[in-house]
Design brief:
Layout (H helix, E strand, L loop, with lengths): L2 H12 L6 H7 L4 H10 L12 E2 L6 E12 L5 H14 L3 E6 L11 H9 L4 E5 L1 E2 L2 H7 L3 E3 L1 E2 L8 E6 L3 E3 L2 E3 L4 E5 L2 E5 L4 H23 L4 H7 L4
Parallel strand pairs: 2-3, 3-4, 4-6, 5-7
Antiparallel strand pairs: 1-6, 2-8, 2-11, 9-10, 11-12
Helix pairs in contact: 1-4, 3-7
């Protein structure tokens, strides 16, 4: 069995049970600061990616369960690695967000026009790349949510190859496991451990209710100190 084929089989084994789209619908109503605060309130590990990971077009938003990919430096391009990525996403891509490590390199784009189109048609909800992407005009036209550190014109061909599929990767300073819940919006990207998705969702909803209470109270002209005694500032 080839090394790439073995990685694909292992990736599909690690993909686990099908993801639940209902939780994604609930998360899509929220915003990342509330989720980050919920993780803090529950004493879980911080899930926010560093400020270098940004939306690549205005209004980009994504919510999905992580499908993790690592690319590594390699001068000899292996077409079978790309085929393995596409096959993996074809089997588990629906309601997944691609989370890609570029091994700390700025030599090629992890995702671009055609790969974004493929992901979109396979049901992938968006992509987070710890590195560069490209073809932003076309990706914007597709409305495929991309989050990354920036852009570069170059392809991975002759520069990078497949390192791993559906194994933990570090992206934006956060270790992301396959099946973790990933959300991105104008504020950045936050990651929720897959087995903590429901309690974090419940806590985030409480935080948003407190935000709404403060907004209404301030609009009514109430004294902030009085509001703080009634409902602590979120």
């Amino acid at each position: 069995m080839s090394e790439v084929k073995a990685k694909l089989e292992k990736a599909l084994e690690l993909a686990g049970k099908p993801v639940d789209p209902r939780s994604l619908e609930e998360y899509s109503k929220l915003y990342t600061p509330a989720i980050s605060d919920a993780l803090d309130n529950l004493g879980l590990r911080p899930g926010f990616m560093d400020l270098g990971i940004k939306p690549m077009w205005p209004g980009a938003r994504l919510v999905g369960y992580a499908a993790t990919i690592e690319l590594k430096a390699e001068k000899s391009f292996d077409e079978s690695g790309v085929q393995a990525m596409m096959e993996m996403l074809g089997k588990v891509g629906k309601n997944r967000a691609v989370v890609m490590s570029m091994s700390g390199l700025w030599i090629a784009a992890g995702l671009g026009q055609i790969t974004s189109m493929i992901c979109q048609r396979l049901g992938v909800t968006g992509g987070v790349v710890d590195g560069a992407v490209r073809d932003l005009a076309q990706v914007n036209a597709l409305k495929f949510p991309l989050f990354a550190r920036g852009t570069i014109p170059s392809s991975i061909r002759g520069r990078m190859s497949l390192g791993s599929l559906m194994e933990p990767v570090t992206c934006g300073g956060v270790v992301v496991h396959p099946g973790d819940l990933v959300m991105g919006d104008i504020n950045g990207v936050v990651v929720v451990p897959g087995d903590e998705a429901q309690p974090v969702l419940d806590e985030a909803k409480k935080i948003i209710r407190a935000d709404a209470f403060w907004q209404k109270a301030m609009e009514q002209g109430r004294d902030p100190a009085e509001i703080e005694r009634e409902v602590p500032l979120p």
